Amino acid sequence: MNPQASRSAFLCVHPTFSEELAFYHKGYRLTAGIDEVGRGALAGPVVASAVVLSPVGSYSFHNKVRDSKVLTAKSRQELFSMIVSEAITSGVGIVSSETIDAIGIVAATKLAMVSAVNKLIPKADSLLIDYIKLNDVDLPQKSITHGDSLCVSIACASIVAKVTRDKIMEEFEKQYHGYGLCNNKGYGTQAHYQAIDSLGLSAIHRKSFCHKQYRMQIS
Questions:
Q1: Of 177, 121, 154, 162, nearest to 16 (Cα)?
Q2: Closest by Cα among 105, 90, 99 to 213
Q3: Whole-prediction pTM value?
Q4: Model pLDDT for residues 55-109, shown as the tens digit of each residue
Q5: CA geometry: angle at 134 spanning 139 and 81, to 5°?
Q6: SS3 state at 138
Q7: pLDDT tens-place string over residues 27-41
Q8: Which of 13, 68, 117, 127 would be 162's cystine partner, CB 3.0–4.6 Å?
Q9: In what helix (H) or strand (E) does residue 76 lie, and over which residues does it extend?
Q10: According to CATH, what is the number of the domain 3-167?
């Protein structure tokens, strides 16, 4: 199966608490699911969220949660409110486009994730992370490919991060007109590239990233 087909298959999966339960049975009671949004965008920050749920708890959103990418904006907003209200704790980390240009997107993504973890009260005692390994965090952790489709707490983190970042980009639209940020959320749509051609890069565009992507577009 090719990577795209494999990804499409995972998008249909209902996330479960199996990974959280595995940590729970080892004695860990505060396992945080972690995910990021905005890693591939041309403009705006990368945003990560960490969400702690009890795998033996009861949640009104459990059967509705999916990877944020397959949900409508309305569903994400409704789930966001339920998640932040019912979770044991949640945290958000935001890393700006300037920092992304300075340290690179991989390091910036990890920085956002660590920031989200550090905001959890009470503190997490273990981590489940979508794809990435946080070597600088001294906690038991597991990196899960397609974790946002398979794991409830990671899926919840993807929703919290997505809703948070979308709101940030909608606010940026008021300041940086003409790029269609309310619609494209900073990602590289054809209209967004055309706006960059016409207006140049704004203060929230990732300069090195945009130049690299633009070269790919015209090559």
A1: 154
A2: 105
A3: 0.92
A4: 999 999 999 999 999 999 999 999 999 999 999 999 999 999 999 999 999 999 9
A5: 85
A6: coil
A7: 999 999 999 999 999
A8: 68
A9: helix 73-86
A10: 3.30.420.10
